[in-house]
DNA sequence: GATACAACTGAAACGGGTTTCAGAGGGTGA
DNA sequence: TCACCCTCTGAAACCCGTTTCAGTTGTATC
């Protein structure tokens, strides 16, 4: 079907009666070429729809203009929002993203990193999976460290190593925003559905939750601190089931992330508990799914475009030998929708 | 920070006292090498964590093991489900996906295709954007045709050209499933929120809707055929607003896709129209967002894993010179949830 | 010990670009 | 007219692997 072999600058050069070097100069614009020859060559390029082989280019350039991205779960709305924004940011800057899905599996994490190193990506962005663990896995640290020695690595999250920059959501300010909002709107009975403390983000939010509650002079009711197994909708349902048995409900609940909050709210409805009439709900991450529910869920937002832009720029800077900032925090904003109400 | 230059097979060869060819043979396993030398080389590979340069490899291999994918909108749940499944399918088969987001912009479509050709992807998958138009844009056809002459192209959707295979959802059977289900459950007053007929999928569904309704002996009420501007949630809201003014409601509505259905249902609720008590709702595409609403929306599902697998396999087959199937249709399934009820 | 093979191995070419280096041609000022 | 400089240009080297081709070495057979 397509048996014609790929044409090369040599073919163009021969037909135009110039040297391959001249064709290359025209392609890259790296030096002046007499207009007459230039036009002859450009004509041929158009005629054959010649496209220079990017692999061959990458061989000499030392830059591939690839950025690798390793993500725990591409189908999760949080990562989806993040890498979607990264694709756009990279594309604006003339880079393309090589995306890997590890499903939080260590073997796949290693495979992805190996693949990216082999492809000489200019830098890589790693998010989720073992990065998020509060207790760092030494094997993983070794992998990160040896990778970073070859290729710049940026972590989307808290960086576990001095040599690696991290760009993370500011969990503490997020919690401050959430609690302050609820307190200002009259809430004094506040609960929290969260996942296991093995996750760094959860641990940080939980500690701050306790601090903020204390500062506001509010009591924390053990019963309203609900630990669920994961970051998914099902975990939210589990939380709601526990809640339905309680004698007294809090007036407001926090959900550790949007998927949990959505599952939580949906199951609450099935138990006849209405949001926000019976209970206000405030979530974290503000992915697009929060505007799909009824009521839409108020959530703490991280401005994914800015988040991604910071990630990608940090990665590119580093790959150009620029200075490394150790940890950047993304400022959160409260995106109020319909799931919180004022208590009188 | 990382000033050590990349090591190559030449470095390894020198230190091991063998030729680069031998190192290459060990790397690829393409020929036997005396055990003693092999061990010496492998030891050095481990010591330096040597990773062969994939770009250099691709230069001789003629295969890059890249598949390009051009998508209209990566943040849309439909494309998200599709390319997520493609990433996984490609990864299982030893390929990686180069993903491009065109935002349905023709210039970006062309840029993406150019980029992919330059990178000598083994094949590319194109979905959304101008592909979906019923009235094909001749410029786009030319682009497709000249691309396909160089690199195998598979269309996720209806193929507009004989030379290009397409893998598409079977819109007609989807509509059959939907109508049959509603009719069996006693519905006789059925409406449809859909987007402009310039889109192929919409046109196909609409024609089949009319045929199916006629076959079931049901009358189509003009008022209940609601044309909205796009495939997004806002369009769904617009549809619901129109509906709220009607004297008589249908007992069931179809939504052209999940985003429209979600927006539709959400706004209906704001108008005090309940799903499924007042009106049943059935959607198309069955992306994950349909299980996030209350009630969860029943939707016609395309089994994205199978869809993606077919796409990726077709692409790879083609790139290996395999035979081309012109058009494959993906069989739909009805995924019943909570948004439809029986009418007595 | 000679012969026939099989198993290994290295030199060199190749893939498709970019870049360096040196030379050629043209223009300028003295 | 000569010296000098600037602009173009091609040959060749390079990037880093793979593959072909032509040995070389080792082993089994007679």
In short:
2 copies of one chain form a homodimer. Helices cover 44% and strands 16% of the residues of chain A.
Annotate the secondary structure layout.
The structure is a homodimer of 344-residue chains.
Chain A: H1 9-16, H2 20-28, H3 35-48, H4 54-61, E1 66-71, H5 77-92, E2 96-101, H6 106-118, E3 123-127, H7 138-150, E4 153-156, E5 166-169, H8 171-184, E6 190-195, H9 200-215, E7 225-228, H10 233-244, E8 252-255, H11 258-270, E9 280-285, E10 298-301, H12 304-319, E11 327-330, E12 333-335
Parallel strand pairs in A: 1-2, 1-3, 3-4, 4-5, 5-11, 6-7, 6-8, 8-9, 9-10
Antiparallel strand pairs in A: 10-12
Helix pairs in contact in A: 1-2, 1-3, 5-12, 6-7, 8-9, 10-11
Chain A binds a DNA duplex (30 and 30 nucleotides) through residues 6, 8-10, 18-25, 27-28, 30-34, 37, 52-62.
State the fourth-level CATH superfamily of the largest domain in chain A: Response regulator
- Give the termini separation of chain A: 74 Å
* Mean pLDDT score of chain A: 94
CATH architecture of the largest domain in chain A: 3-Layer(aba) Sandwich
Show unreliable segments of chain A.
none
Strand arrangement within the widest β-sheet of chain A reads: 2-1-3-4-5-11
The secondary structure category of chain A is alpha/beta
- The helix fraction of chain A, in percent, is 40-55%
Number of helix segments of chain A?
12
